[in-house]
Give the backbone structure.
Amino acid sequence: MHTRQSLLNDLARAALLPNDTVIVHSSYKKIGTVSGGPETVIDALWDYFTKDGLLVFPTLTYTLFHDYDPQSETCKACLNSHPPGHCLAQIWKDRTPEFHANTTPACIGLLPNLFLKRQGVFRSLNPSHSVAAAGPDAKDFVSGHQFSPTPCGNNTPWRKLLRRGAKILHLGSPINSTTFMHACAEWLHPDIPTPLIPRQVHVFDHTERQIQTAIQHITAGSTECLQAMIPDLTRLGTLKHFQFGSAACLQLDCCQLWNFYSKHYK
């Protein structure tokens, strides 16, 4: 059984530093049996990174943008292949969807939603690609996301990850769930962005005050190219492998990943 201390030891063995900025993608089931359950996983990450660094989770809600039609083959496939709660569009059928910073759950799993409930966590105001962060400057890190016309533009937390030289951690999750790659695609072709799905969404901040936003857009791109990049990224040291609990994990360097992608995918 894994413990808080054994998970802290795993982070240290991975050569991660307490002052690192990390964004965590995760699959709790892959981590294995943990004393205290998923809260212990959050505890270990919190202890390691939030005093001197920055701990970030994607808290994505892109399914708000879906067109819910339970008779369509697309919806049937989605509902059959994802756990309950993934489809956020379902509760807003025939109404303008709403994003509430405090209460709209992430559609991407257990750990991000547990993280959102913690005191000292700040969430950015974007209805599809929000992030949540904890650490000394977490509030500044998430600020301003609501002013970007696209989810991952230059003044968003996704760009700030690059500026901070952040590391992407996959704790049992696959490399093709690296949301940072959507940001890379936006930055590489700012005049010819990846397809964007427009949708009016009402956005409410942490005080439940509705904020003024234009029609929101969600990046409709693919991260499948990452699978083909694994050998080169590993050879260059951009992708490293480590163990966290029982999970085979991946570590990516944001700056190195952006440099490789911008060079090879112009």
In short: The chain has one domain: 4-65+99-264. The chain has a mean pLDDT of 91. The radius of gyration is 18 Å.
